[in-house]
Amino acid sequence: RRKWKRVVGVLKELEESCETTVGRLRQVVDAMAVEMHAGLASEGGSKLKMLLTFVDNLPSGSEKGTCYALDLGGTNFRVLRVELGGQRSSILDQDVVRQPIPQQLMTGSSEDLFDFIASSLQQFDENAIDFEKSSIRKELGFTFSFPVKQTSVSSGILIKWTKGFAIKDMVGEEVAGALQHALDRKGLNMRVAVLVNDTVGTLALGHYHDADTVAAVIIGTGTNACYWERTDAIIKCQGLLTTSGGMVVNMEWGNFWSSHLPRTSYDIELDAESPNSNDQGFEKMISGMYLGDIVRRVILKMSQESDIFGPVSPSLSMPFSLRTPLMAVMHEDDSPELTEVARILKNVLEIPDVPLKARKLVVKVCDVVTRRAARLAAAGIVGILKKIGRDGSSGITGGRSRSDIKMRRTVVAIEGSLYTQYTMFREYLHEALHEILGEDIAQHVILKVTEDGSGVGAALLAASHSSKS
Ligand code: ADP
């Protein structure tokens, strides 16, 4: 009996340290906006890198012709061909091939990697030869989802590898140039027209479909966001001029940090044991790579405090043994006996015969962890809106109330499995958005799911930055 109390105590403590009241979320909103300012004011001025992308116009919908994209950001890479009809949302045809990158190429030389990629492009192109004569030079959008210091819209230098890549001779080198050289070696008549990050592709695709789109957010394995900023607000780059007067800024928001973020002992341990401790603090509370492991750590603690989960199982002690999709299945188990929870505890975490009341606790743990993640993501989004004056708070003076202010329709493009596949996550995010903004303002803020923005968006950007137009 005393042991059961201990377990309930663990849950209670978790709930308290994960608390995200609206007041707390508003502090996170303000901190996000402040950090955005700081990151724009000077290089290294904030944990938010606020990287320039040199993307100074977004697809308008009038793009025409055939464009290609190459999407490299994980263990697979994809080649896409997109045919555009010249009218908003008229993507006529789309072709994709996905290929895994052989392990040895992820840690070999840059020439080997890019030759391999260029060969795939060549094969893809030969299959598509009927569609366009090969004498016409093709424009290629290159989505490269690693941290890059951009030097123009079509060039940039690799800052560091992540996600298991370790090609030493690439770090500090020009990324688009390396691809272009490989294309030239193969005799492919293609030009790398743009080099972008996946969030920028998502924003481009969102804007192609809906011109009120001002920002893009991805919540998948990791998390990041970008948005449209006025160039005169990008203080660290004095004299930056674009014809549009604006530019997309890649926030790298996964690295956001604020003392207002509700942090638990589990977060601290997860961070300390990670290969990138003190980095990506926001991401570690929000994204798919980590949520399951936070839950695992809480169950481990409960198991150590009592015997209701039996002896501590080896799987439960193993980092990342509980993946986020399975955590979501437990969270969303609506069977009266919580049979899915029982099955996953038994088969994945090797904890058999957990009584129903303990299974209920496990569901509650999933709920607390996901609710915090979704609400913090919502606060991050409102932080962006605040920075660009779209949260309805600017210009409130004297006797005017919030509802008197004319709020412009504001669209945020969103992608990633946490949002698209995890219903509870999505619902908590929406709920928090409404709580923070209030109904009057929130009705003008629309989250729109785009599909394959990282690839299709890059092709669109290649079209709008084509040397022909
Ligand atoms: P990417 O790797 O490009 O970010 P996704 O947006 O599909 O791709 O995100 C994958 C991540 O989302 C994985 O880390 C996984 O943990 C998580 N995930 C996938 N499906 C679900 C699901 N149904 N519920 C919760 N999380 C999921």
Write up this protein.
This protein folds into two domains: 1-50 and 210-451, 3-Layer(aba) Sandwich (Hexokinase, domain 1); 54-196, Nucleotidyltransferase, domain 5, CATH 3.30.420.40. It is 42% helix and 18% strand. The protein has 16 helices and 13 strands. A hairpin with a 3-residue loop joins strand 9 and strand 10 (223-230). Helix 12 (356-387) crosses helix 14 (423-437). The relative contact order is 0.17. The mean pLDDT is 91. Adenosine-5'-diphosphate (ADP) binds at residues 74, 220-221, 288-289, 323-325, 328, 416-418, 421-422.
Task: Describe the structure concisely for a colleague.
It is a single-pass membrane protein. The protein has 469 residues and is of the alpha/beta class.
List the helices and strands and how they pair.
Layout: H1 2-17, H2 22-41, E1 51-52, E2 64-72, E3 76-85, E4 91-100, H3 103-106, H4 110-127, E5 138-144, E6 148-152, E7 155-158, H5 175-185, E8 190-196, H6 198-209, E9 213-219, E10 223-230, E11 246-250, H7 265-273, H8 281-286, H9 291-305, H10 324-331, H11 339-347, H12 356-387, E12 410-415, H13 417-421, H14 423-437, H15 439-442, E13 445-449, H16 453-464
Parallel strand pairs: 2-5, 5-8, 9-12, 12-13
Antiparallel strand pairs: 1-11, 2-3, 3-4, 6-7, 9-10, 10-11
Subcellular location: Mitochondrion outer membrane
Pathway: Carbohydrate metabolism; hexose metabolism; Carbohydrate degradation; glycolysis; D-glyceraldehyde 3-phosphate and glycerone phosphate from D-glucose: step 1/4
EC number: 2.7.1.-
